[in-house]
Design brief:
homodimer; alpha/beta; Peroxisomal Thiolase, Chain A, domain 1; two-stranded antiparallel ribbon
């Protein structure tokens, strides 16, 4: 009885420092590319969701969704969704629910962030708004600091090594060299990560995702309507969303993200699949430790074995479960509100066999995992092609 | 086949300047009141939507929905929705869609804004984020300025008088005297409005809604589940949402809000009713002219006749269509993200016959109308009791 939901188009801008393009130009560029990719026209779209973390502080602009709808010349329902760095993934989930509701058929989802119009120090302060401002931010804790606490504890409990953390960044930079939109498409080495400037011990500069401008868009569509536009359908087979306390110190564990586990359970059950069936995944590697937590919490490897799994090459393009083929947040870039939508776009390209040099052979089922803050939001999607 | 959706609980904080309560205390207070009013417990809730315009700039806090879910001890999907001053109404609509999707049954919707932790001048700058920052804000246009343009044109085209504008404020203050949560529960006169300090000609201080702290919450529930908790169901009979260009100068008309007309059409059609069937309405009176535009665009009175309609007393508590029984944004207060949720709460109280001294006799169908910016977002809901 429930209608099925598909992704029929994707569009991406280059990720990086866009001195020549503003917020609205980036959003429109990605949106129009997704519309063209879907083979639809603007008037086919009946609703829009936009993921954006902090337009208010980055560019002085709220009311983002109406801005973008207006620029596209549409009077449709348009909604901005915010859950810090998980804003994009959550916008996709809202579009999915909107199509399931039966009230909308063709929904454009955009994610966009323009982060370089403010000083880096101001951007860092803005990002602390994703943590608990009263209990964490005002006392000087930064995001590298919060993830450093998690990294240290993981190293202590499970013997994860400094080199294993670095290998995450090395692998993601390697993937980024094959991705034309990546912010940092160049290889790095374990040594260069370990010798890069310290940020919050044990994390160095090259363990951290960068500050990025960029936008991503997808077209989400009811299956019955999608068949008018394409024969090759990529389904949203499962969608999960969970939350946890905003402050890290209120959680039971420093070495797992409970919201990821809950969101993943919801998505796996809805899709009727097990983690081992996933062929390719984009996970939230805001810091190198975050990717290790993610692959454990998503069930790709036992808790505590993530570091070894990376060291064994299992997450590389030619490994058993290629992770972050796009280059991830680390090397493709992390325009916070756009990241979750970009993850879906990357997986759609993989499932369609359109990922070029970074193509995972015969990918049929893909997963995306988008985290807000230090784990207070997690959104997981499972995509599956039907051919 | 489509499930019906109800509102089974409402909760409101006092609106005003809360020096002794912070953002999270306000949100939790309203949420717990709504949960208690619905006769449910926290564990019955399976999702949450929060309307908030600018936590990032007012209190340095984004990631609002996870914050509130965490404070309530829940790990449920929680989503912040933003559409400037229409954030609250839009959060209600997303909850409605989420229940219609079949993925959620009992959804807590909150609206909250803490505006007085920054200086008034800073609050005003933050609110300009609801307009087009590049084309309006940076050039010095303020919201009173934008609505003053609309007021002047309405006076020119339709002969609306200065006194008629003032009568909107006088009527709303009169209603506020009967509302225990109102920020300004005292009567004013036409003379006091006209003699109050000029803000943007023809609008004076008492034509403008204030800066307010406050929160509102409702519990939205699938009808089949709601019957476990109550026999008296208030249905969401219709929901409409539309957008328009963010900048006022890009629109075809200064004297109508096209987004209101489109959203109202959607809601009326869904509910299967005509404007004349509405017994009571909460409309978006951020400035006195806005209420006149609203009652025209919602179809309660012909375009251009809104001023006369107010002068004739038709919108008073004892008139043909009582408008803003709560006191409206003008006198009940306007904590921007909370306003749209408060409107729904007020209508639910009216339909239940629990509105005390401001009760509209035999109210059976109510309407809410929430606007973002100068009209780039409009959200309309129609509520109906089934007894």
């Amino acid at each position: 009885m429930t209608r099925r939901v598909c992704v029929i188009g994707v569009g991406l801008t280059k990720f990086g420092e866009h001195w020549g393009k503003g917020f609205r130009e980036l959003a429109i560029e990605a949106g129009i590319k997704a519309i063209e990719d879907a083979g639809i026209s603007g008037k086919d779209i009946d609703a829009m969701y936009i993921g954006n973390m902090s337009g208010g502080r980055f560019i002085g602009q709220e009311h983002i969704a109406s801005l973008i709808a207006g620029e596209l010349g549409l009077n449709i329902p348009a909604t901005r969704v915010e859950a810090a760095c998980a804003s994009g993934g959550l916008a996709v989930r809202q579009a999915y629910l909107a199509v399931l509701s039966g009230k909308h058929d063709v929904v454009l989802v955009g994610g966009v962030e323009k982060m370089t119009d403010v000083k880096t120090s101001e951007a860092a302060l803005t990002l602390v708004g994703a943590a608990d401002q009263e209990w964490e931010g005002y006392h000087g804790v930064t995001f590298p600091g919060l993830y450093a606490l998690m990294a240290r504890r993981h190293m202590y409990e499970y013997g994860t090594t400094r080199e294993q953390l670095a290998m995450v960044a090395v692998k993601n930079h390697e993937n980024a060299t094959k991705n034309p939109i990546a912010q940092y498409p160049y290889p790095i080495t374990i040594e260069s990560v370990i010798n890069s400037p310290p940020i919050a011990e044990p994390l160095n500069l090259l363990d951290c995702s960068p500050i990025t401008d960029g936008a991503a868009a997808i077209v989400v569509c009811a299956e019955d309507v999608a068949k008018k536009f394409t024969d090759k359908l990529v389904h949203i087979a499962g969608s999960g969303h969970a939350t946890d306390t905003l402050a890290l110190h209120d959680r039971e564990s420093l070495t797992e993200i409970k919201a990821t586990k809950l969101a993943a359970k919801m998505a796996y059950e809805e899709a009727g699949i097990k983690p081992a069936e996933v062929d390719v995944a984009e996970v939230h590697d805001c810091f190198t430790i975050a990717e290790i937590l993610a692959i454990e919490d998503l069930g790709f490897v036992e808790k505590g074995k993530g570091g070894e799994f990376v060291e064994d090459g299992e997450t590389r393009l030619d490994g058993s479960i290629p992770i972050n083929t796009s280059g991830g947040l680390k090397a493709c870039g992390h325009p916070v509100g756009a990241t979750g939508v970009k993850q879906i776009a990357e997986i759609v390209l993989q499932l369609r066999g359109e990922a070029g040099e970074r193509q995972v052979k015969d990918a049929r089922i893909g997963l995306t995992h988008n985290v807000g803050g230090s784990g207070a939001t997690a959104v997981v999607h499972i995509l599956e092609r039907d051919w």
